[in-house]
Design brief:
The chain is α/β, with parallel strands linked by helices. The chain is built from 18 helices and 16 strands. Helix 3 packs antiparallel against helix 6 and helix 11 runs parallel beside helix 13. The N terminus and C terminus are likely disordered.
Length: about 475
Amino acid sequence: MQLTTSLGESEKRKLQLKAVPAHLSREEERLAALAAYAILDTPPEPSFDAITRLAAEHFGADASCLGFADESRVWIKSWWGKRIREVPRACSLFDSVLDHDGSVAVSDTLLLPRPEDSPLMVRMLHARSFASAPVRSPGGHIVAALTVFSSQPRPPLTADQLHMLECLADLAASQLELRRLRAAPAQQQPPTTRSAGSPKSWPSRCDLRHALDRREFVLYYQPGLDLSNRRIVAVEALIRWVHPERGLVLPQHFIPQAEECGLILPIGDWGLAEACNQIRAWNREDPNNSSLRVCVNLSARQFARPGLADHVESLLLQTGVSSHQLGLEMTESSIIPNLDTAVEVLNGLRSLGVSLFMDDFGTGYSSLNYLHSFPFDVLKIDRSFVSRMAEGDQPLQIVRTIVELARVLGMDVVAEGIETYHQYALLRRMGCRYGQGFLFARPMPAEELSTLLRLPGRILPEPEAEPAAPAALSA
């Protein structure tokens, strides 16, 4: 069956299902089935590569892939032809297959009602036709999709041809189950870290899962300024949790638990997508905002994914945002444990034109040893150094050294946590060009920041200097 109409209705149906609790339950069961295979972010395996190659050769396709979908992404385990390592799950081929609980085939994408809304991977591969079949667990849950792509339109698949693709998908499912059985002895060992959270801990994995499903997470934005003229040149996106009972929850109260239980990946991917959507909204409001850069913090687990650059490229394509408007911030501690992956990921992001920030510079343990090896554009001076500048020569010298180091390496430098006029004046005198902090503006919802962006030239008012200390009275 040719399900060409599925792509036009996929998003509508997905939104309708979100209101049904049973749908959430089925998705949780599907994710549990996927987790049992422990296959995400694993190296290529010949058994799966043989299947994608066979699929491409049998259908005369230009590319083929086997993609597994978690909450927020489709991760490509095996590919033939052009290599794409992952894409966001939203608007993906996988969701079309999942929505229809079966295969999807399109003989010519230009005949779709809205060809520009074709799935991301179709657009990235410039495909004119494709077919995708579900890969199911023994319980019937769709955990992956096997897809073939062609750069040319082709006649609709016959029933026998579609059956052949589904048989290859079933072969991939058999390899998955065989792989799981081989790994079963190791999986019988009790895990060292469980994420559900003890009865005394909050939030639990369930709390975080529900917050993600109910869209309780929001992004606040703090402006970054050119300190020479107080013009807003960037904003940092900062996650918050609008809890129905606890109110606004700051990230330090839930991000560590999200890291521990593994939900930091879908939460982080949501943050990236939300930031790109907000960039697009600001650009539409005022074309002059196209010079504004929005910076997003990456978790260590996000950064450890080799497919991160492909994921970001897909988001930029989906939203129509220019790469120079997106900045990605990572800490030293997220880089050092995975040096080989770090170099690959950073180079991939740099090739896209995305700005790379080393956050909290100076607080890690190998900064200077690795700074030359990584293609960073910006160093961010940790707020702990900025806050102590007035305490004596040594803290001041540390900040001055970082500013000079950035200059020598051809990098920009941003001072975080500027809270007093004295800190602001010191940073300007030592040549620190950019900064952010409560002195200028606290993190705020997107609507409030939009008001600041409408100021003439995006220039914030001069902050008030602290009054001089009164002279001591004579006896």
